[in-house]
């Protein structure tokens, strides 16, 4: 298939696009910005070839331009096989189809017949799978291609196979085997209905047999359990009377032991109360002694604190005097430090002004000298402008002058002469110049003499015709040299060389002088610094001091400030201990302690007097004696009660009673549970009647199902073995005829990926991996750039293989690439360009792109800007 022209009207975003007179081979680049309709061109081409004009699907409706009630229209002129035709289709509004065939025989059709004829042409001469593969859309860049699924590729591979094996596999045997295989298995190897039913019947029979065996085993278990539970119930009923009598006896013993325990607990509470009363009486006696001791202790503490009061007051007065004196000295030292800081600031400002003024004067002098040097340098450079005259130039002109002098002398010695005579002042004309008669004229080839109305021209003999005139040649060489130097003669050349040499030496000296004067700085920085200083000193009054005196004044001010600061530090350090006010704090603490001691003595005395008023010491002693006797009496009664409890052992009596209760409850539970279990087991036993007969029937059904499955399995395994054998041989044959595809792909890929690149192919001729040397990478793990390069290379390989297949007169299908190579680096882009050029030598390659620069290296390409295609016909 070759595309000659394509016209698109009102198709999505394209209002009008015309592409005419496309070359039959070569790379055609259609470029434009995004959303300008490049991909729509590919959609329109597919629509005009395969979509009926009467179609009204959602896809067809999406072609109508937004906001306009017009019919999408596409017209294509192409050659498919031996047929050249133009197909025009309108969709939706005013739908129509027109087909005009111009070769091999003219024919015109419209409507349904036109589409039927187009379908016949395409079916006979165009492999639709191949076209779909070679029309490479943006979303197809990462996908692998199953080349076996393309009949044109299979046919092409059959044609180049070196062993005669064909890739065609639809033989009668294969078809019969596949049909029989599909009776038992799906294409993926899963069992089909017949095999699945046989397996299902066997599984059901196995399940029924298992269920029957389980039911029979359950019946046997229920009968055995019924017997065991009946025996357990009888034993519990026999033990029940003795258990009830034992429980009543132990309950009475537990009740008596509990009463003894409660009595003992009451006696222990009375003993605790008596003991607490004794403790209170003893505590009252102890408290009376503590109150007396507290009064004595408070008097002693008060006397101790009062003794140090006078000394603390003297220390506080000394501390106050020191704080006042040192504080005054500190203020004086701080003021002196402030004065010295102000003096230092003033001295630094004066030093800065004096230094800046001196620097400004220096810069002015320096810049004035630099500018004078710059003017002299400019003058010297102007004098040396133009081409410099070197010693080699002088030598060349000297040599040319010497050669001319020598040529003239040689010619003068060997040339013929013509001498004139006549009246004085008379002249003749030689080569257009007046020559006096007394002169001698050398005759050279072509010398022309004019005497009155007579013209004579000298012609030398044959001996002089072998070469040109050496004098003329030497004059030409000298003239060329002087013209190149734009000088008149040798002396002028020598003078120009000497002048240039002196000027160069002067320029070098001036440049060295300027470098020395700048002292490593640049003129712009110095000029900027001078401008800054002029601005800073514009409103300042410059002190009448030199920089040394100003610096000395700064040093003196800094020394004075340091001394003042040191004095402040010394006074402050001397004041630091007194700021803590230790004497005042000690006096305050002592006063507080004296006040506390006085208050403590007052309270202790009051407490002692109040206690003595309530009860005297004799009364407290009598109370202790009475409480002791009461406590001893209750303790004796408590010991007797504890002995009674020990004899009864309430805890053991309670435990024995609980054990009897538990046994009685367990016997009742066993009897009740046995009744319920026996009732349930009777139901199970009644329900399981006939379990033995069911088990026999299930065993028979299982044997029949197993026999049927074995029969189906034998047939299925036989056809599976036959199919696997055929597939193995087919794979071996496919591997042989797949070699040309792999070789073609590798040949195209070597310029891009290197000479040691290899590819792994599936049995469907899909690229599965790429190997470069010892590194192998699966297709899915390749980079985006490598994937898109491989997608294009695979389609180029398919295109070149199918281009070799011309048995049915097919013209190779164009390769259409929609906006590819976006992830390809510049070096690989250059290599891919060579492949585009190579494929364009034999077929059409149409590239739709928004970056035409990617294809600048493609030779013989034709470029169309999509905006120009929209504006009118392009040819």
TrEMBL record:
<dbReference type="InterPro" id="IPR038729">
    <property type="entry name" value="Rad50/SbcC_AAA"/>
</dbReference>
<dbReference type="InterPro" id="IPR027417">
    <property type="entry name" value="P-loop_NTPase"/>
</dbReference>
<dbReference type="GO" id="GO:0004527">
    <property type="term" value="F:exonuclease activity"/>
</dbReference>
<keyword id="KW-0378">Hydrolase</keyword>
<feature type="coiled-coil region">
    <location>
        <begin position="547"/>
        <end position="614"/>
    </location>
</feature>
<dbReference type="GO" id="GO:0016887">
    <property type="term" value="F:ATP hydrolysis activity"/>
</dbReference>
<keyword id="KW-0540">Nuclease</keyword>
<keyword id="KW-0269">Exonuclease</keyword>
<feature type="coiled-coil region">
    <location>
        <begin position="309"/>
        <end position="350"/>
    </location>
</feature>
<keyword id="KW-0175">Coiled coil</keyword>
<feature type="domain" description="Rad50/SbcC-type AAA">
    <location>
        <begin position="5"/>
        <end position="61"/>
    </location>
</feature>
<feature type="coiled-coil region">
    <location>
        <begin position="195"/>
        <end position="284"/>
    </location>
</feature>
<protein>
    <submittedName>
        <fullName>DNA repair exonuclease SbcCD ATPase subunit</fullName>
    </submittedName>
</protein>
<dbReference type="Pfam" id="PF13476">
    <property type="entry name" value="AAA_23"/>
</dbReference>
<feature type="coiled-coil region">
    <location>
        <begin position="695"/>
        <end position="722"/>
    </location>
</feature>
<dbReference type="GO" id="GO:0006302">
    <property type="term" value="P:double-strand break repair"/>
</dbReference>
């Amino acid at each position: 298939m070759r595309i000659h022209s394509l016209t698109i009207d009102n198709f999505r975003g394209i209002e009008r696009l015309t592409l005419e007179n496309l070359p039959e081979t070569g790379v055609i680049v259609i470029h434009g910005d995004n959303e300008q309709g490049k991909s729509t061109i590919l959609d329109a081409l597919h629509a005009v070839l395969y979509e009926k004009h009467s179609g009204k699907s959602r896809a067809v409706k999406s072609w109508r331009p937004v906001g306009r009630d017009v019919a999408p229209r596409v017209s294509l002129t192409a050659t498919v096989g031996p047929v050249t035709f133009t197909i025009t289709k309108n969709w939706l509004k005013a739908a129509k189809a027109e087909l005009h065939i111009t070769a091999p025989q003219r024919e015109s059709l419209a409507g349904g017949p036109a589409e039927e004829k187009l379908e016949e042409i395409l079916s006979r001469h165009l492999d639709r799978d191949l076209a779909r593969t070679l029309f490479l859309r943006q979303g197809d860049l990462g996908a692998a291609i199953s080349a076996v699924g393309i009949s044109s590729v299979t046919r092409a591979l059959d044609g180049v196979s070196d062993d005669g094996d064909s890739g065609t596999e639809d033989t009668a045997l294969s078809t019969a085997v596949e049909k029989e295989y599909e009776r038992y298995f799906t294409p993926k190897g899963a069992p089909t209905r017949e095999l699945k039913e046989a397996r299902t019947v066997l599984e059901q029979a196995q399940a029924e047999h298992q269920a029957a065996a389980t039911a029979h085993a359950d019946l046997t278990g229920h009968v055995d359990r019924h017997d065991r539970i009946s025996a357990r119930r009888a034993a519990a009923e026999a033990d029940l009377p003795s258990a009830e009598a034992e429980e009543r006896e132990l309950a009475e013993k537990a009740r008596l032991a509990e009463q003894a325990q409660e009595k003992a607990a009451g006696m222990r509470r009375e003993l605790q109360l008596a003991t607490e009363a004794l403790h209170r009486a003893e505590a009252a006696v102890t408290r009376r002694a503590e109150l007396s001791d507290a009064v004595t202790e408070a008097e002693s503490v008060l006397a101790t604190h009062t003794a140090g009061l006078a000394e603390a007051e003297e220390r506080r007065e000394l501390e106050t005097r020191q704080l006042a004196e040192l504080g005054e000295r500190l203020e004086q030292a701080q003021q002196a430090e402030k004065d010295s800081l102000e003096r230092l600031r003033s001295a630094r400002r004066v030093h800065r002004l004096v230094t800046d003024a001196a620097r400004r004067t220096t810069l002015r002098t320096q810049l004035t000298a630099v500018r004078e040097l710059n003017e002299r340098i400019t003058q010297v450079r102007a004098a040396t402008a133009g081409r410099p005259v070197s010693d080699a130039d002088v030598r060349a002109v000297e040599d040319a002058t010497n050669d001319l002098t020598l040529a003239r002398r040689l010619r003068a010695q060997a040339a013929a002469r013509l001498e004139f005579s006549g009246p004085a002042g008379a002249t003749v004309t030689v080569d257009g110049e007046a020559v006096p008669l007394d002169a001698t004229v050398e005759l050279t080839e072509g010398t022309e003499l004019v005497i009155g109305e007579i013209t004579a021209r000298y012609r030398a003999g044959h001996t002089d015709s072998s070469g040109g005139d050496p004098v003329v040649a030497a004059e030409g060489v000298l003239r060329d040299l002087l013209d190149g130097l734009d000088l008149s003669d040798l002396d002028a050349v020598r003078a120009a060389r000497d002048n240039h040499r002196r000027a160069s030496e002067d320029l070098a000296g001036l440049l060295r002088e300027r470098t020395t004067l700048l002292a490593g700085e640049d003129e712009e920085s110095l000029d900027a610094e001078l401008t800054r200083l002029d601005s800073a000193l514009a409103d300042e009054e410059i002190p009448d001091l030199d920089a040394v005196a100003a610096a000395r004044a700064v040093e003196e001010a800094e020394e004075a400030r340091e001394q003042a600061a040191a004095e402040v530090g010394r006074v402050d350090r001397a004041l630091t201990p007194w700021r803590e006010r230790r004497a005042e704090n000690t006096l305050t603490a002592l006063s507080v302690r004296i006040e506390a001691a006085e208050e403590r003595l007052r309270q202790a005395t009051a407490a002692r007097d109040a206690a003595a008023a309530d009860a005297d010491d004799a009364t407290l002693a009598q109370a202790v004696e009475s409480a002791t006797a009461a406590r001893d009496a209750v303790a004796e009664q408590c010991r007797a009660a504890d002995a009674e409890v020990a004899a009864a052992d309430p805890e053991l009596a309670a435990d024995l009673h609980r054990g009897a209760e538990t046994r009685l409850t367990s016997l009742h539970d066993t009897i009740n549970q046995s009744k319920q279990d026996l009732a349930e087991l009777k139901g199970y036993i009644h329900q399981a009647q006939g379990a033995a007969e069911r088990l026999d029937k299930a065993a028979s059904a299982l044997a029949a199902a197993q026999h049927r499955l074995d029969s189906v399995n034998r047939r299925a395994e036989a056809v599976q073995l036959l199919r696997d054998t055929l597939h193995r041989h087919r794979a071996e044959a496919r591997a042989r005829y797949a070699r040309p595809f792999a070789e073609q792909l590798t040949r195209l890929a070597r310029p891009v990926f290197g000479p040691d690149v290899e590819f792994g192919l599936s049995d469907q001729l899909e690229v599965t991996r790429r190997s470069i040397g010892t590194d192998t990478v699966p297709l899915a793990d390749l980079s985006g750039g490598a994937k898109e390069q491989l997608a294009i290379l695979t389609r180029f390989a398919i295109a070149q293989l199918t281009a070799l297949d011309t048995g049915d007169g097919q013209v190779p299908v164009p390769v259409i690439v929609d906006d590819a190579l976006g992830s390809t680096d510049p070096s690989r882009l250059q290599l891919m360009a060579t492949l585009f050029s190579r494929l364009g030598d034999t077929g059409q390659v149409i590239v739709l792109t928004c970056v035409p620069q990617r294809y600048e290296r493609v030779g013989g390409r034709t470029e169309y800007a999509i905006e120009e295609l929209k504006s009118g016909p392009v040819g």
